[in-house]
Design brief:
Immunoglobulin-like, single chain, 2 domains, alpha+beta, binds copper (II) ion, 4-stranded antiparallel sheet, 5-stranded antiparallel sheet, about 180 residues, about 30% strand
Length: about 180
């Protein structure tokens, strides 16, 4: 047992002789790696381990956000956006600009070409996320022009990429993916 203690102590306490210079040798001893000089080094090591773990756990989240960033197909802060759908051109504009969450927004849809069988509407959501239902109903203002008001909420995750799926009955769905300011 004594041998084991000494072995362990020598192993852990390279500087055991300095630390136990009161004449007593052996345990209890302070392991060499716990010397005050080593504390900055140790904290660096622990910080590094902590950061590595954090990085590993946040990479998938960042990757998902980057994925969605590459899906962005409309700079709604600058101008209206147009998608082509079969024989229709679908133009979506949102005002006021820049487009902010939690503010009353006016959605304006302009359709050229084939007109939908019934009034179009907009489903607001986020790519890769199930948000609560948020539908903007649109009223015809003139031929091919529809307007409606709605609110884009602030996502609890902090992500800001939103999708407006414009549903045109009898034609299809045009998707606009854009950044929203929080
Ligand atoms: Cu969300």
């Amino acid at each position: 047992m004594q041998f084991f203690n000494e072995f362990l102590c020598t192993f852990l306490c390279a500087e055991v002789n300095i630390l136990t210079s009161n004449g007593k040798k052996g345990l209890p001893c302070v392991p060499a790696w716990f010397l005050p000089d080593h504390i900055p080094l140790l904290s660096m090591l622990f910080t590094w381990i902590f950061l590595s773990i954090t990085a590993v756990s946040t990479v998938p989240v960042q990757a998902a956000e980057t994925d969605h960033l590459s899906m962005v197909n409309c700079n709604i802060h600058e101008h209206a956006c147009t998608r082509e759908l079969l024989n229709s051109k679908v133009t979506l504009d949102i005002s006021p600009k820049p487009v902010k969450a939690m503010t009353d927004l006016l959605f304006r849809l302009t359709l050229t070409g084939k007109q939908p069988a019934a009034a179009p509407y907009i489903d607001l959501g986020m790519p890769g996320m199930k948000m609560g239902p948020n539908q903007v109903s649109l009223q015809a203002k003139s031929k091919g022009v529809y307007e409606g008001s709605g609110i884009i909420v602030r996502c609890p995750s902090g992500k800001r990429i939103w999708k407006a799926a414009v549903v045109l009955p009898g034609i299809g769905i045009a998707e606009f993916i854009f950044n929203v300011l929080y």
